[in-house]
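ARCHIVE CARD
Drawer: 12
Card no.: 0347
Subject: one protein chain, sequence and derived structure
Cross-reference: see card 0346
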Amino acid sequence: MNPIAFEIGPFTIFWYSLFVLAGFLAGYFLAYREFKRLKLSLDFLSDYFFYVVPIAIIGARIHYVIFRWDVYSNDLGQILAIWNGGLAIHGGIIAAILFTIYYTRKHKVSTLKFMDIAAPCLILGQAIGRWGNFFNQEAFGVAVEADFLRSVFIPEFIINGMRIDGVYYHPTFLYESLLCLLGLGLIMLIRKIKSIKVGEQTALYFVIYGISRLFVESIRTDSLMLGNFRVAQIISVIMILIGLALFIRQRIYSQELYNEIPQDNKKDKKKKKGGRK
């Protein structure tokens, strides 16, 4: 498996980088469509993405390096080599959430509603970005027979890509990607419900991704560890608990509906229509 997509002069473009970039772009365009539907500021969205992309990447890298410090402490130059892999998605999520709280409060935008808009964008980006692990032949699971992979209808090119040093491994990148796409579908379906409240899509994201990663991590061979515990599973359990608590809280106490367009935005729309007459 060749991790290099192509080369332009002295520049080498890696598949890993392309899929990470594709994930961010797909998330942006999904958010763009929702911002237009809800009559929200597209300038706010583009400014937010300008900052959050590098912040999320830095957060994902820092998280990974911290729990792999035994490796990077002997070669500090490799800390910047993210094209070789080594982005821990949980670190990126934490960094993005912290920045989102700061940025939305600074601009007096509803944090939970913005996170609701971002939830399907994030899980779509994760589904796409996981394919970078495939080309790097990393983040795979325990050894398995090729016949088993064929019996569960894994495509042959993926089976071949999961043959490393003569041994076949579970394509956990694929499992997580498919689970993320399933989560995307569920969130988008629920988004159509008129009675859905602000914060519930965010809660659903936490629960869906938490459960998905809890399962996938159980068969991975390269987990970041904290003592005898897998870091990703600890964070996944926390995500599930936060998601359940948030959903219950919003369902009982919140009166704000997600699909309700603010009156100010409705007036702006009417003014624009009136101006065309």
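Annotation on reverse: The first strand starts at residue 4 and ends at 8. The CA atoms of residues 21 and 129 lie 8 Å apart.
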